Every structure is written in structure tokens, then in C-alpha cells.
Amino acid sequence: MKIAVFPGSFDPITTGHVDLVKRALPLFDKIVVAVGVNTQKKYLFSLETRLGWLEKVFEDMPKVEVASFENLTAHYCQKIGARYLLRGLRNASDFDYEKTISQLNDIVGDGLETIFLISRPEYSHISSTIVREIIKGGGDASPFIPKVIEPKI
Ligand code: ADP
What percent of the chain has a predicted confidence (pLDDT) above 90? Predict the structure, then answer.
């Protein structure tokens, strides 16, 4: 069974994340969208809120599971039997960052493969950071977040 983990903060999930998962569905038997919990990091939305949104967004995609994990992503993958990581690339700075992480995960995860999908042009400007800035500034973030979570933001 080909299992991929799509790790992230999803603070909050954006339409860019959703597009990536949809495009990756034919490649895997199961995709675990997993919220990585870093105790040092400050989040805008609570873990419960973020997980609740993920459950709603992916409820009509039977191949997608939602979870959260602490500590190393590679160890989490080993624990659940996932041999693949899914990540998105929007631009060159994503690439620089992701390259190092994927090389580390290959070693730490004992051959854990990262599969990258280049974001579609219409999503490449969207990030959770931008969405958080819009929300904090009192703007309308609805063009960037899935419809099902929109009313709650
Ligand atoms: P992290 O905290 O690990 O950066 P994010 O939730 O911000 O987590 O992102 C998780 C993954 O989703 C990353 O691989 C990122 O490149 C990808 N991603 C984020 N936004 C987009 C987008 N608009 N299009 C495609 N991929 C995206």
C-alpha cells in the first residue's frame, strides 16, 4: 500500500494545500494530511481548530486521512508505514528549503522519498502566512481558503 504523508502546519489550510492533495490522489493509495506540532512554535489557530477544518475539507475524499504528530516527521512516517512524503513547491525559496529537508529525511527516514508537486500558477502566491496577515489585518481571506471553513474565519 502506497501511503504518503503531507505534513504541514495548516495554520490555516489554504486552497493551495487542497489543490496539491487533489492532484496527488492518483499517485497514492492513501494520503495522511498530518499537522506537525512544534511546541516551540506559536500558531494563530489551535490544533483542534486546524484538525477540525482538515476533517471537513477532506471528508468527501475517502483516500485522505487527517492526523497530527509531534517530533520528527520521518519517525512519524515510519510509525504509520508511510514510505513517501508529499510537499509542494511554489518558488525557488521553497525549493532551497525543501531540498535540504528532503535530503535529511532520506537519511533519517531510511529511504523515505519526498514527492514534490509544483504548484499550479493560480495557487503559487498563496501561503498560510499571507492568509494569517490578511486575517490579522481585518481583511477578507476568503479567496484563499476552502469554502467549508470560510464562514468560521
Ligand atoms: P510548513 O509549516 O511545513 O511550511 P505549510 O502548512 O505552510 O507547512 O505547508 C505545507 C506544504 O504545503 C509545504 O510543502 C508547502 O510548500 C505546501 N504549500 C503551501 N502552500 C501551497 C500552495 N499555495 N501551493 C502548493 N503547495 C503549497
Answer: 95
